[in-house]
Amino acid sequence: MTSNIIRAAGIVAVALGVCAPASAAEWTVNSSLQTLYGNYNGSSQRQSMVNGGILIHADHLDTSGLSVGVNATKLSFRGGKALNQQSYFVSARHKLFFDALPGPLTLSLSGHWINNNDVTTNTDNVSVIAPQLSWINYAKTWYLDLGYARSRYNNNLHVDQYTPTLGLGFRQGADWLQLRGYLIHFSNPLRAQNKRQTSAADVKYSHWFSPGAFYKPENMQLGGLFGERMYAVDNDAAAVYNLADIQQGSLSLAAQWRLSEASSLMLMLGNERYLDNTRAERYNNRFAWLNISQNW
Amino acid sequence: MLKYLVASMMLIMAATEAGAGNVSAWSDSYALEANGKYEKAAAAMLPLMERGDEKELATLRYGWLNYLQGNFNDAIAAYRKALKLNPRSFDARLGITLPLMAQLRWKEAMNYLEQVLGQSPHNYLAHVRLMACEEGLRKWETLARHSQTLASYYPSEATPLVYLARAYAWQGKQDLAERTYRRVLVRLPEHIEAKRYLNQ
Prior knowledge:
Chain A is mainly beta. Helices cover 5% and strands 63% of the residues of chain A. The two termini of chain A are 29 Å apart. Chain B has two domains: 1-89, Serine Threonine Protein Phosphatase 5, Tetratricopeptide repeat (Alpha Horseshoe); 126-200, Alpha Horseshoe (Serine Threonine Protein Phosphatase 5, Tetratricopeptide repeat). Chain B has helices spanning 2-34, 38-43, 46-50, 55-69, 72-85, 90-102, 106-119, 124-136, 140-153, 159-170, 174-187, 192-199. In chain B, helix 6 (90-102) runs antiparallel to helix 7, helix 7 runs antiparallel to helix 8 (124-136) and helix 8 (124-136) packs parallel to helix 10 (159-170). In chain B, 36% of the residues are buried.
């Protein structure tokens, strides 16, 4: 498994031209430690989820970058059983500058590999490949991207996901609105709670505050998901929702504090609503997510 | 003997004409630039980039004229070519930062500026552009330290103080920002940004 990931990382990096020789000073590295706790409410099966991981981004000047991440998750069920999962993430990106365009194009290619001890094997041995093309203008008032993700699951299921995204910046960069569509098709409805496809819109609104006292956040973010999605791939969060039932909406509020010029802390609280179609059961996941980020 | 004399005379005449042609190409290019005809001014440099004693200068100028047209990729390519012709060139390193900064490639620009400052630690232009990059990357603490040091080396200049005032303002240090903008107005009494900040 590990050798596959290393090989895949190499292929992704070479494909995007990230591996050009360069001095150490030309690289900047950011690491973030993150942890999540979720408590399920209204589910006859699920009790809680704990997750922890590390994500490392290495950027070569302003043009290319490579990210790697590892994550461990424990999903506890009522009655004492638990599902333990390890996930690995690799992503490479490269920016292209064309004078005909008022901003750079970014090509990225991400891969996810997931292993767990699911006795049904349905959510074990998941692999995802996700290319994305994005563009942002120099003034940072417009952002567009088109993402695709192909997920392969055991027992005759693959999932195709399309994520068109529009971002708008206004009030001189103090506000940012992002709308992302999730159009997800399942090859086998029997493995997708009788769904052939789902569609959802993810909305995020961010506001940057003027500087103030140390307890005042630098940035706050309100997020919401409308519609339905299942087996989603979120490349911004480097996460695959392979364990989830049908997500029928979510609401979250996040605040980010600048600890120093090189470090920041983000806390997110939220609620996700789910439908388990096979049990005709609706339940919620109330979660808290903490992220500490450091530039080296 | 006469044959050699005629041949030598012809060679001297041809060289003089070529020299006059070059001077004319340079002066044409300068005049075109002064009239805002950057594309034609750059085109006049093209033949001079391939031969002659001034191909390095022609290449630098081609980069500059492409930068003025907004052809940032061509400008970067020209400055890189100039740097290959003369790896010691400060002009090429400082020049390439302009199109890089126009494309918000702050880190790449900083890389070239730090190369200049490695050889010439108090180069004012390199420091000013480095401050612009630090502002672009929103490194307010670094910018405050840097601009304060530069202001001590160049006490009559307003620009380091403008960057220092911005860095204070972005860190929420309003009193220090006001005090610094007042120092800017002493040097440039009509400075729009300083007046606007102090009047708000």
